[in-house]
Specification:
Two copies of one chain form a homodimer.
Chain A (H helix, E strand, L loop, with lengths): L2 E7 L3 E6 L4 H7 L18 E4 L10 H6 L2 H5 L2 E3 L9 E4 L26 E7 L11 H13 L5 E2 L3 H11 L3 E7 L3 E6 L7 E7 L3 E8 L5 E8 L9 H38 L6 E8 L1 H7 L20 E4 H4 L8 E4 L9 H10 L8 E6 L3 E6 L4 E6 L20 E7 L6 E5 L7 E2 L1 H13 L18 E4 L2 E7 L10 E4 H25 L6 E5 H6 L2 H7 L10 E5 L1 H11 L2 H12 L1 E2 L8 H7 L13 H5 L1
Parallel strand pairs in A: 1-5, 7-9, 10-13, 13-15, 16-25, 18-27, 19-21, 25-26
Antiparallel strand pairs in A: 1-2, 3-4, 3-5, 6-8, 8-9, 10-11, 11-12, 14-15, 16-17, 17-18, 19-20, 22-23, 23-24
Helix pairs in contact in A: 6-7, 9-14, 9-15, 10-13, 11-16, 14-15
Chain lengths: 623, 623
Amino acid sequence: MKKVTVTVLPYGKRVKARIGDSVLDLLRKANIEVTSYCGGAGTCGKCKVKIVNGESISPLTQEEKNLLTEEELKSGYRLSCRTKVLKNTTIYVPGESLVEEEIREKGRFEIKTPLMPSVKCFRVSVVQPSLEDLRSDIERIKDILKSVYGIHVSLIDPLSLTYAPDFIRKKNWNFNVLVRNENEILGFKPVDEDKIYGLAIDIGTTTIGMYIVDLKNGNVVSSGSILNPQVKFGEDVISRLGYILRNGERGLRELNKVLIEGLNSLIEKLSARANISTQDIVDVVVCGNTLMHHIFLNINPLSLASSPFVPHLSSPFDVKARELGLNVLRTAYVHTLPIEAGFVGADNVAVMISLFPKLSGGPYLVIDIGTNGEIVCGNKDRLLSASCATGPALEGATITHGMRAQLGAIEKVWIEKGSYKVSYKVIGNVKPRGICGSGIIDAVSELFRSGLISPSGRFVQDKRCERLRRRENTVEFVIAWGKDTATGKDIAITQKDIRSVQLAKAALYAGAKILVNRLGKGKPKRVYLAGSFGNYIDIKSAYILGMFPYCSIGDIVAKGNLAGLGSCMALLNRKKREEAEKYAKRVRYVELAATEEFDKEFLDALSFPHARDSFPDLEKLLL
Amino acid sequence: MKKVTVTVLPYGKRVKARIGDSVLDLLRKANIEVTSYCGGAGTCGKCKVKIVNGESISPLTQEEKNLLTEEELKSGYRLSCRTKVLKNTTIYVPGESLVEEEIREKGRFEIKTPLMPSVKCFRVSVVQPSLEDLRSDIERIKDILKSVYGIHVSLIDPLSLTYAPDFIRKKNWNFNVLVRNENEILGFKPVDEDKIYGLAIDIGTTTIGMYIVDLKNGNVVSSGSILNPQVKFGEDVISRLGYILRNGERGLRELNKVLIEGLNSLIEKLSARANISTQDIVDVVVCGNTLMHHIFLNINPLSLASSPFVPHLSSPFDVKARELGLNVLRTAYVHTLPIEAGFVGADNVAVMISLFPKLSGGPYLVIDIGTNGEIVCGNKDRLLSASCATGPALEGATITHGMRAQLGAIEKVWIEKGSYKVSYKVIGNVKPRGICGSGIIDAVSELFRSGLISPSGRFVQDKRCERLRRRENTVEFVIAWGKDTATGKDIAITQKDIRSVQLAKAALYAGAKILVNRLGKGKPKRVYLAGSFGNYIDIKSAYILGMFPYCSIGDIVAKGNLAGLGSCMALLNRKKREEAEKYAKRVRYVELAATEEFDKEFLDALSFPHARDSFPDLEKLLL
């Protein structure tokens, strides 16, 4: 196969490629992570590159004509997923196309649960072998665990057998034994090294949250998050699933590999920050939506790609960390929390165990909006769940100037009634590059409150406002003028963006309303927002848009990353794992698309605000 | 470090070595397997090589002066373990120093036990997912295993999860499930592929026996043996243990690696011979002496190197075959049988479960002579065991012209009374190269019967016999004249060889007698010989030497490879594994060296035959 050389600017990196390779693929191979919401399907228009010499690549496609502006086309911009290299060439990757690390963290919290970790450290003082006592090393260790601690160990991880004989003699038969579930010896440690830690991982489609917890006192010693490195294969669940379907097991391995590498780099960073060794991490609990769960466990997720969208594996699962390549204690296990149904995954189960066991009465509505919206309604005895195809609009994707909640994203927007004066807040207090989910919700809500859009979502064009303008067959409202932005281009909300927000919020509202009605226990006592979405959006803005049914604004409480909290609880208290299994079995999944009322509720919910009487606080908020 | 080049003849192989490397080590690195009974300690004298240019190597050592004949020294022979290279040189490796593959197989047998294998194949027809039935794939498979077969599966091997989602759909939800212990799913197979096999391995110090068994009908479909490739690190347990002690975990890994490689090559050979795939081997049972067991499981065996010689791990152990690198079904387990105590290992447990459950009355004496002699005395209710340091003499090692039971070994010897005419039988019916264990026992027994050695074991030199001669400070009896041998040299039994046999048989006799006395149930009803030793020696010769206490010749029965048979039984019937654990716990190990009577019994037993009244059949045999 003939090879060509592609020079990538501004890096000056020279990459070998085969004739016919797509530019997106060759950039991935060179580890240059270009944003691609659609995973290379040619529909999101985010993977823009500039080609220095147009003759060296394949001709312009219809998708590019649709997705690039005339100005961009004139300047030589192309979509890297639609462009194949034909000759040696030079490509410029603009900063706006690059994937950047998230800078807003998933929330912090305090974990309140009794300390009953799976893995414990037992100090033993063992009688040495003699001619009168010929028991094997392991037998005498088992016997002392039984007589002193009353635990009956029957398993031993084989990896401990290589170093143990020498170790226990050098330590003069006094040492600590790591035991899991009072049943399996994971290894041995010196008596003065008894620190053991657990790792909780919440694998979101966009962000991965991680917590290192001290298993002896329950404190979080280190936490952090990274952008899920799988985003280079597509921003949302559907694009990544598509990538795996197109590429089979090889595709699965690729997505698994970047995930594990990303997790390992974060494990190393957080361990270093807490001043511990990764080998002191003796237990791991993982949650995530069903696709993330499957990819993490190397499960081919094809059953999630077509109706009726069942998971391959839904039960809780225990596997040695080394089988997954995770850089923690070599003999440690990873426990994945159970999955409910379809895309309502282990992350939702983690949310439930963090919240419901403590709640009495009810019902409660819990809304966790990541890239998908997952809703649970009920109380600790009876629960319904559903997944809403909110799409990634609320995370900033599919929005014209949308971006993730990164450095340079507009995260808050205010519009003055009458004057239409705009003020905004940018993450990192730098010049803005785009607008993220919480900013979009604010913007649309403020546009409605200030009368610039009608209840149907259309721009009211007869208003005298210079920010409202017609452009390239659409109408848009300028949030930030080019002179104030990092790109020099205006940042605006278009009619199409408003439609995206309408679709997302209507899906969420309809789903939540159907669950409340089906439960039949009346208006929810509280609406809990889980996840970083709930932490960062302005609840008032969301309320004005009509996102949550049957509630006063005072009923809405943001609870932070409940999935992470639930995972930490399952680390510190193994009973929580049994509880998770019970909740996963107890909750009844409602396939919204299959319900009779969904279409009607969804259509009803598209307008702003669609049903005034269900929003008692709306009038005063609109003032 | 400066390198030199060593040319190895007759191969013409050129090997790079560092100045100061021993010739034995450089030959090992070049994969030329030279016999070394002592593992390089300079005591066995078997690793002879001829040096073409004497100045290129280190000076002659005292050990070499002791162990090589004057003739050999004159011709430039050296011991490769005592010789370090100093300059570029040329080395000739004589055929007699090379390790060759065993050609006599460990015995064959028929396995009689109820068919209750650990791993079974269940055919299922699964209801497909629908909007009304959203159970996950695995859940529905578990449910059908429960409803149709009444088994409750709770574990799934993670490796099956990658291919299963696609596989079960392609097979239209009709397939076979491999389930272990009615508890863990190991994988899936098409409905028309339901063949499953088990593998039994008996790892002897010298020979490895292997059996592939059809788990559906209990037939042995393929069996064979190889020389344990660890022999290049030393012929006996002590030499190999010494190698590991000197080289630490690296040494352990080396010995483990050659073992696993050897096992894998035999697995491939036997699978091909039976026309099955190695991936159809779904279960493995392994036995071996304690050191072989430890090395196989990568357990540092240092506890076996010093008193009180306890194993590190004695309980039965289950580990995934892939963790050990064994080339069978990737998700299969390896089960190692339990160890009794010290060097009385899992092989002896296999012998017990193959024999004792079927025996009534008793007591019985079971003698398994490999490189060590393991003795069990008792009945199924009460058992004593011991290990005798017979040393490798009975396997042909430490004998002047000794060799293993390979092509060219004299395996039977007859001496005519009066004329002292010798006849012999050679393995493979070729010209002899040496004499193996059964031949040595015959030779010494015949020398005694024909009056050429006295009861004390000394040659009776006044006999007129040209074969009996004084040579180099010793006396020897020529079995084969140089004109009739493959090497052109005479093959003889020396006074020293007779002493070695005396030490070995006295250790065995004394051990067996002490066990019979301690049991206190009188004379054994039967003496069972286990292992290839029992299969190939002449029972009459062994009887004349006085190997077995308190028995008539008719009481002695050779049972073949009982360790292999016991392992196969544990494959076909998982109840046998529980039985093995019971036997390992029930048997009381007697540390012979620590008993008061051992020294006296051992000294008494050195002569031929030492106590006529305990050998009722002796007089007529000596005629």
